[in-house]
Write a structure and sequence with these properties.
seven-stranded antiparallel β-sheet; Jelly Rolls; 188 residues; mainly beta
Length: 188
């Protein structure tokens, strides 16, 4: 979906205070903005039954280096990687609660200069997320309100990738149609 040599099929997201976007060495660098820098997909994208994967890295800074906004049926959601001071992973928003406030919240160490493989699978009534080989999120979305945090992130729809006051890099963006969740439903 993104070759790292050009932004064909993508555009720079018109965030106020955005940093530069540069394609080099088969990756896309999102230079630190004030606050966001990002790119948005310009082609049609499915609303359900898909998986998207990419490699992302924090180059410099101390906040999220990958904010992946994606469709979920008739709404949108963002996976935040490295947010809220650098260590948070989670979905924004579920039932009006941000990535730092809902059951998807995970705190972990994200090393600067290290590539992370991020995978998101959206199917009927479920969002699943992997970081490298570890499944970290498996949330049932049936009868839940899935939405974006209010503000400029809304400019990323239907599919976008951004960083927040941080320089991030992305590469190897892949897309796959799927027909079912990858694993069993979570137990509550």
């Amino acid at each position: 979906m993104l070759d790292g040599k050009s932004l064909i099929g993508w555009k720079e997201t018109a965030f106020g205070g955005r940093g530069e976007v540069e394609c080099r060495s088969n990756m896309v660098v999102l230079y630190m903005g004030d606050p966001f820098t990002g790119i948005s997909f310009t082609n049609p994208f499915p609303q359900m039954d898909y998986e998207i994967a990419l490699d992302a890295m924090r180059v410099s800074g101390s906040d999220f280096f990958c904010g992946l906004t994606f469709p979920v049926s008739n709404s949108f959601c963002s996976l935040i990687v490295g947010g809220w001071g650098g260590s948070l992973l989670g979905l924004s928003s579920i039932d009006g609660m941000d990535a730092s406030e809902n059951e998807t919240t995970k705190f972990m160490n994200f090393e600067q200069g290290k590539w992370y493989r991020i995978r998101v699978r959206v199917t009927k009534d479920r969002i699943e997320v992997w970081l490298d080989k570890d499944k970290l999120i498996n949330v049932v979305t049936k009868d839940r309100r899935i939405s974006l945090r209010a503000g400029e992130i809304e400019m990323s729809v239907p599919l976008g990738i951004c960083s927040w006051q941080t320089t991030g890099a992305i590469k190897e963006v892949r897309f796959l149609r799927v027909s079912a969740p990858a694993g069993p439903a979570p137990r509550y």
